[in-house]
Amino acid sequence: MKEMLLINKLIAALRTRKEKTFRDEKLLAEIKNNEFENTHWAYKVPFYFKDALDIKYGERVKPELNRKKKGSEEWKENYWSQGILFNFKEGDTIYHQNGKSCIQIKKSIPVSFENGILNKGTVIFYEYSVDENGKYKMVNADNKKHCNQIEFLELLITGDKSKFGKKVF
Length: 169
Known about the structure:
The structure is a single chain. This protein has helices at 2-17, 149-158, and strands at 30-32, 35-37, 43-44, 55-61, 76-82, 93-96, 101-109, 112-114, 117-119, 122-130, 136-139, 145-147. The protein is an alpha+beta fold. The chain has one domain (2-158). Strands 3, 6, 7, 10, 11 and 12 form a 6-stranded antiparallel sheet that branches. The longest helix is centred in the N-terminal third of the chain and has 16 residues, at 2-17. The radius of gyration is 18 Å and the shape is globular. The chain starts with a helix and ends in an 11-residue tail after the last helix. The model has no long low-confidence stretch (mean pLDDT 85).
């Protein structure tokens, strides 16, 4: 999937450039009318998760105008950019596209990049089923799922739970 290719590109850029501020113009989820265009993802990840996805809106020098006088309005532009410092947080609840299940994060540690080392963070979460009356039931209460932030994002995109069978005690 193109999203996983972008994540791998961002990770490679961090390792090569050793800059935690590296950002890409390509986004994991395109933005239209302040909403993500990600209906092809397994889970509904609304626009308010932009910070968790490390999608930022900022100002930069227009590449084609970088020779103009600094400080002029034509010299700058606003744009969306993608980073790798994912930060899904405790309490975040994300619903499956079918509305019949959701994931709730119990504990997390964000992705970090310090001294040239990428720490992929941690996410511990529970799965819930949602019935037609909107009632929640924990799926296998004895088995919290554990993964890193990048694997968690991959789960949200693909829905593939096969690698998340680790028990956390």
